[in-house]
Amino acid sequence: MEVHRLPTPASAEERAAVDALLGPPPAPDAEGGPGRSETGRPQQAREERQLLLPALHAVQDAIGWISAGALGYVCERLRVPPAEAYGVAESYALLSTRERPPRVAHLCDDIVCRNAGADALTAEVARALEGDEGATWEPSPCLGVCERAPTALLQIAAGEDRVLAAAEAPAVLAGLRDEAGGEASEAAASAPQTAEPRADGLRLLSRVGLVDPASLEDYRAHGGYEALRVALERGPRWVIDELNASRLLGRGGAAFPAGRKWADVASAEARPRYIVCNADESEPGTFKDRVLMEHDPFALIEAMTIAGVTTGAEHGYLYIRREYPLATARLEGAIARAEAAGMLGEDVLGSGLRFTVEIRRGAGAYICGEETALFNSIEGYRGEPRNKPPYPTQAGLFGKPTLVNNVETFVNVPSIVLEGGAAFAATGTEGSTGTKLFCLAGSVARPGVYEVPFGATLRELIALAGGVDGGGEPQAVLLGGAAGSFVTVAQLDLPLTFEDARGADVSLGSGAVTVFGESVDLADATRRIAAFFRDESCGQCVPCRIGTVRQEEALHRLAGANGNAGEEIAILGDVARAMTDASICGLGQTAGIAVQSAIDLGLLEREGSTP
Amino acid sequence: MTSEPRPLVELTVDGTPVWVPEGASLLEACRAAGVGPPTLCYLDGLTPANACRACVVELDGSRPLVASCSRQAEDGMVVTATSERVEHSRRLVLELLASAVDLSTAEPQLRRWLEEYGVAPERYGPPAPAVDGTAERPRPGHHAQPDGEHAATQAQPAKLDNDLYVRDFSKCILCYRCVEACGVDAQHTFAIAVAGRGFDATIATEYDAPLPDSACVFCGNCIAVCPTGALMFKSEHELRAAGEWDEERQTITTTVCPYCGVGCNLELHVQDNEIVKVTSPSDHSVTGGHLCIKGRFGFQHVQALEDGEE
Ligand SMILES: Cc1cc2nc3c(=O)[nH]c(=O)nc-3n(C[C@H](O)[C@H](O)[C@H](O)COP(=O)(O)O)c2cc1C
Ligand code: SF4
Ligand code: SF4
Ligand code: SF4
Ligand code: FES
Fold this sequence. Notes:
The complex is a heterodimer of chains A (611) and B (310). With 611 residues, chain A is of the alpha/beta class.
């Protein structure tokens, strides 16, 4: 395929940014030079294509936006049609194909931050940046630091991304001038149970706040890499048997039995096989994976390595949202140290088995957390979900058998290997074994990640977080993030297990527990959720692409004087039903749920013209 | 050449047992049972895009509905293709499209479905005023807050940037057919792709460049598969604008393309002695409906010549 050349050439800086990632360009007449036919070399085409997103990041990072010249150069180097590369770049919120100031503050205005001073922060930053040609700001969906709201992400060309939380205007402005220090991250501020005296019974959080995330020695001194040794000793069959005995269910939202996936990949015919860790964590109100990765990065790398040696995969991808620069840096450090110590690489712990982990950064797209959209994103295509079946274990990343698990799911594995599946299953309930991380945020006294055995009630969880701000009961709780549903006081005694949630027609989803006190405007929160889905729909299928727009519009008509409440409620019901039934993926299928629950519970009724 | 008959799989559609060859889709099974669901994005010969979701059916064991065009039939499947539940989703798909897209020049079949399903797009509010030609597509992840009254639409000016065909994305249902025809399914030119996200997703060249500056080779294969008239011969566009387009007055003459030795079949659509567009039968063994610039647009040379001779 001849790659169409764009009329504008790339600048020297743009070329340098791309070459820094891809290496110097081949001599024009060398094999593989630009414009050569790729016929008969699909493997190479695939390997080039999968560098598209990293190459776009490289340009965005260095220059601050992706010009036509830069895109053209990337396309020439990777032999990707420019129209396709443009379509990819134009699907991510954190890449810009339009010129803009080199320093951008992304200010979260999502369900937690908007009730924690985001408005005032935004107003102040906006005022200060007026007329500034070097810096600008944008509203952002949830940045995943809800326990320290409001949150800002600074994206600085030729500098580093940085998160500020709790963000104050002077710090944001100083950060935009590149004057602020590094990113603060204190374990106890994000996981209050890890403050002294530490809570009993912490398993997933057992090392959080205790170990130095940059020290492999420290990790090993706290039991790290024991599980990998045992897994290698006992072999794949044993590990999978223990995983099945543990009855561990996936923590990414769908609650699928982990052992089944591992077994399916281990027994798949096709090769190579891949491990993928889903660290995209973009569900509003969710930040548990970030806390694990920031404070115990080796645990995730060890767990992925166990997955690799157990399923016969030699390569793993860790797909993490770009909004998590600190976690990314710490994981990069952990991978490098593990490699240097022989825990990763050509010969894992002297077993003769090979396993490597590569980090891939997302670029601002909630949909890329959906596993098949995530594969497309890694492969260099638009983050559009694929039709299932085939399932990832049959044909996933690059069409090969792939094990994809959530961060928290993985981090459960080492303790299952160490204590055995049966012992693991002794915690929790029959249908929901082990402990669960919940993300308490919003109107609670001590927001943060909390670890409890499955079966704790919502009321207990809120009490653990210091109770509702200002005392009393919450007006409502959003369980499972934007894709979840509202519950009210009547359901506070719901035991938090997969089976009880199912019975109550709600979902634990990502483990987000967003608490809304009396003063919060729930109709406003509901509209924000609708806006989120409208922004994050990939656009592939009609029910979601247009349904999310009509849903948001109907909520606005309902709030204003323009709506006939009965008619708007009917529209919302009709649209939600079609989205749930006929959308391709979980995004569209859940896009109407929170709104419908708000209607059913009468949460929108505080406002003007209501039903 | 004889080929082994493919083994059959047996399933039921609306309670009727049907047999289809292994590898066939549920859509084929539904059609075999005489209950063809509406299909907007699916086209024989192109990879199913699985995008419009009009063809959904109930499949026992699946919580959501499944797109029949994109799901392989398996032995023992129990499919419900006619029910209040599937009719609801199909109606909503058609209604949502009608509320956002100008379907006035869409295929007759599509327009019949709109009627059959009794869509009421006006209930989503009066259409928002069209954006002018200079308005930028919202950046992914951002959009203007609804005004509490109007329904957002795809209304936008048509793109007239070349002499051969017009792109009017206010009529686009994003069925992906043109992208597939330009790419892996026929042309392998990859001049166009989907850019933007969600409601703002659209078919575009790189940086929305005018077609003559893009990789487009003007084969017109995208026009041939477009179900809505979003992609249209300039000749047709102009006649329509003048109110003179009249299919009743047109004749179709089949001929073989004279430009090279491949032997593509051409269908010349003639109105008032002028060739107004050129197609090729989609079931034709040589073309599969696809042509190159000479066959598709060469008629302009023919006409220019004839005009010159007069
Ligand atoms: C729109 C959407 C977003 C998702 N985002 C995430 C995510 O950020 N992290 C995650 O682990 N799973 C996410 N999922 C679920 C994944 O598709 C997949 O089920 C999960 O990664 C499997 O891991 P598990 O079995 O360990 O839960 C998302 C699903 C959808 C539909
Ligand atoms: S449901 Fe929404 S996000 Fe999922 S494929 Fe369809 S348009 Fe894309
Ligand atoms: S005319 Fe041909 S090359 Fe041009 S966009 Fe259409 S299919 Fe692609
Ligand atoms: S332009 Fe036509 S063929 Fe292309 S996506 Fe739109 S409606 Fe489909
Ligand atoms: S025809 Fe099946 S999804 Fe469009």
